[in-house]
Design a protein that fits this description.
The protein is α/β, with parallel strands linked by helices. Helix content is 33%, strand content 25%. The protein binds adenosine-5'-diphosphate (ADP) and magnesium ion (MG).
């Protein structure tokens, strides 16, 4: 029905009540568990399967998108699905099984409904009290996945229980991981020991020394906020093209991610910019490494210009952004992930260097361009600050 990797087999074969998938980045955890759940939905009639994420935006950009990709890639699977309600995020199967993607506000909220199978996606973003209520109302099996960037309730509570299987995986267990991504993950070994341990090998670590701690989550950008600029960092095959928007309100910064996608050509970027409401009069501060892309986007009518970098621009732009309180919208899930692993490099002796670990920092780079060029005092005379 679909191509599978070893994690699929391991999860499908597990007979334990709880199957914990701890792993590094891109090890195939989410994909494999979803494939197992599709298998169960089809093989057993009238199953209720719940997939839980920390919030709906995270599900939509993560597990739900993966599920849609798996379905799109399998004619056979499509034949088993009779209905998909996008609003409620519920798939219905010909044999009466249903698969729902949802999130819960609190433990009380999680008391509603019962299910046969439960998948707790990126469990470290979900409260233990919510998990307890869900687990209690699951008749058959629970699957859990996460990157172990710190010890949390799965380690202290779940793994200590009975009938629990722990599967530790990393990109080497995912036959579908592109080589370029593998290289980036392996390169972490020389960049940061702790990040390598967690994201490269799936071993429980403690990510400390994060660069940005001056941010909190908000529902949305206030209507009264004024635009500072949009940022744009170019990627293509392996790196996403990343676009955050930065606003000012109440003496604070308000930031939201607009898009974060691989494989975007310049016409596609222009389309997306239009789609997300970027006006041709808005300033867009872009990665200066791609003058051709900048020119093309300018030809599409956008006000895109190359970020001034200058000496020490990374350090300087970080210093500038650190002076502000940054309010990040909840649906900026990629930015949130980047911020949670953006840290200073350390030398062999553990001494902190003046340079961040260059890994998963696309939206942050775009944010830095805006910081340096629109919020700093070194604009090379190009723009007068408001
Ligand atoms: N069985 C599969 N078939 C095709 N592609 C897969 C498969 N398993 C994983 N992949 C690819 O690998 C990527 C990473 O897998 P994912 O499950 O998201 O990793 P993790 O959840 O461990 O970070 C997916 O986005 C997908 O492109
Ligand atoms: Mg995942």
């Amino acid at each position: 029905m679909f191509e599978v990797g070893p994690l699929y087999e391991a999860n499908l074969d597990a007979i334990d009540d709880v199957i914990v998938n701890q792993g590094g980045t891109s090890s195939g955890k989410t994909y494999s568990i979803l494939q197992v759940l599709f298998t169960k939905a089809i093989q057993e009639p009238n199953q209720v399967i719940t997939i839980v994420g920390q919030d709906i935006p995270n599900l939509k950009k993560g597990a739900l998108r993966d599920a849609e990709t798996i379905i799109a890639g399998s004619r056979e699977l499509q034949g088993f699905i009779t209905d998909y309600n996008r609003t409620d995020r519920v798939f219905k199967f010909w044999n009466g099984s249903v698969m729902e993607f949802t999130s819960y506000q609190n433990a009380q909220d999680a008391k509603s409904g019962k299910r046969d199978y439960l998948f707790v996606n990126e469990a470290n973003g979900i409260a233990y009290s919510i998990y307890q209520e869900l687990e209690m109302r699951t008749r058959k099996q629970v699957y859990i996945d996460y990157n172990p960037n710190a010890e949390f309730w799965v380690h202290t509570e779940v793994l200590a229980g009975k009938s629990v299987k722990l599967l530790i995986s990393d990109h080497r267990h995912n036959p579908f991981c592109p080589d370029k991504i593998r290289e980036k993950i392996e390169a972490l070994r020389f960049k940061d020991h702790e990040l390598f341990k967690v994201y490269g090998r799936g071993l429980t670590g403690k990510i400390e020394g994060l660069i940005f701690r001056n941010w909190n989550l908000v529902d949305e950008i206030p209507k009264e906020a004024t635009l500072v600029a949009h940022g744009l960092d170019f990627g293509f095959t392996n790196d996403p093209t990343a676009c955050p928007s930065v606003y000012k309100f109440n003496g604070e910064l308000w930031v939201t991610e607009r898009f974060y996608e691989t494989g975007m050509t310049n016409p596609v970027i222009a389309d997306r910019m239009r789609q997300v409401g970027i006006r041709t009069t808005d300033e867009v501060v872009a990665d200066s490494a791609e003058p051709k892309s900048i020119t093309e986007l300018t030809n599409y009518g956008f006000n895109v210009w190359a970020a001034n970098k200058g000496a020490d621009s990374v350090k300087n732009s970080i210093d500038i952004l650190k002076r502000w309180t940054m309010n990040i919208t909840k649906d900026s899930t990629n930015l949130r992930r980047e911020l949670n692993m953006y840290k200073w490099r350390q030398d062999k002796d553990g001494k902190t260097l003046n340079e961040p670990v260059d890994f998963n920092n696309h939206l942050i780079d775009a944010l830095r361009y805006v910081g340096l060029n629109k919020l700093g005092n070194n604009n090379n005379g190009r723009y007068v600050l408001s």
